[in-house]
Amino acid sequence: MKINKLYSIILLFMMGTLVSCMEESDFDKVWDGSEVEFDASTLPNGVTQNFVRLNATQTDQANLQINLVGAAQSTPVTVTVEADPASTAVQGVHYTLASKTVTIPAGQVIAQLPVTVLTGNIQPTETPNLVLNITSANGAKVSVNYKSLTYRIRVICPSNLVGSYTVLWRVLNLGDGSGGVRQTATNFTIAAFPTISLTSTATGVYTMSDMSFGMYPGFYQDTAPTGTFTDRCNVLIGASTNRDRYNDPFTITGTSTPADGKILITWKNTYGDGGTVELTKRP
């Protein structure tokens, strides 16, 4: 009985302390303000947009969304944006801004900031990044965490790699689990999984139906991992987000020769799997 009473006293003391802490931490307060933010600022790497360069005078229009987080206002909210000195994109060379302000209309919660991309001035080897900061907004606060956005402008050549491809392994490496190779084959075809397909997800960006090129389902009876790459003037760059279902990252590089419909890709994961595959476009 004494023990029960002691436990009761301790429990009441802990509950009282918890309530006191919650009161001091303002847990009972409800946020009722409005903030402005870049919609894409929540993405870890900002926004990358590819443009196909067709001539030296070409321009393209991009729109970057700004959100009003909270209730729509009864009066317009004007947002001011400035280019950050850290930008590698140069005004008048890589882009232009018609205005540094954008207005979110009364009763609305989004607006678009137009950016003119001077595509004809940009070489595919350049990597201009435009860093934008929201500096002020009338009628709303500026978000502390989402006020900045990195807009990566990339120029590529015309690309059309969509289709079905046969897979020939010039070199096939089966991993040993620690990054090494336990078995190798050359000029090899996985009979049960001889093809993959490429679909377009954005300009110059392609999704592979199986970025193990038949290895996972053929050798491990495992799920085929999908992955993406970007075609930059016939140089293929795998996305940094390419991972299998075990969260093992894939490093993918390659080249394409549109004239003969062939793609050469070299890949590897940290398990040790990988190799070089030759993809030939099917009619």
Count of runs of 4 or more consecutive helical residues: 2
Number of domains: 2
Mean of pLDDT: 90
Classify the beta-strand content into a percent band.
over 45%
Tell me the distance between the termini. 85 Å
By DSSP, the count of extended strands is 19
List descriptors.
283 residues, mainly beta, Immunoglobulin-like, Lipocalin, 5-stranded mixed beta sheet, 2 helices, 19 strands, disordered N terminus
What does this structure look like?
It is a single chain. Helices cover 10% and strands 45% of the residues. With 283 residues, the protein is mainly β. A hairpin with a 2-residue loop joins strand 13 and strand 14 (205-208). The termini are far apart.
Q: Would you kindly provide a brief summary of this structure?
A:
The chain has 283 residues and is mainly beta.
Set down the secondary structure blueprint:
Elements: H1 2-24, E1 35-38, E2 47-52, E3 60-69, E4 77-83, E5 95-96, E6 101-104, E7 110-117, E8 129-137, E9 141-142, E10 148-156, E11 163-175, E12 181-188, E13 195-202, E14 205-208, H2 215-219, E15 227-232, E16 235-238, E17 250-257, E18 262-269, E19 274-281
Parallel strand pairs: 1-9, 2-10
Antiparallel strand pairs: 1-3, 3-7, 4-6, 4-8, 5-7, 8-10, 11-12, 11-13, 11-19, 13-14, 14-15, 15-16, 16-17, 17-18, 18-19
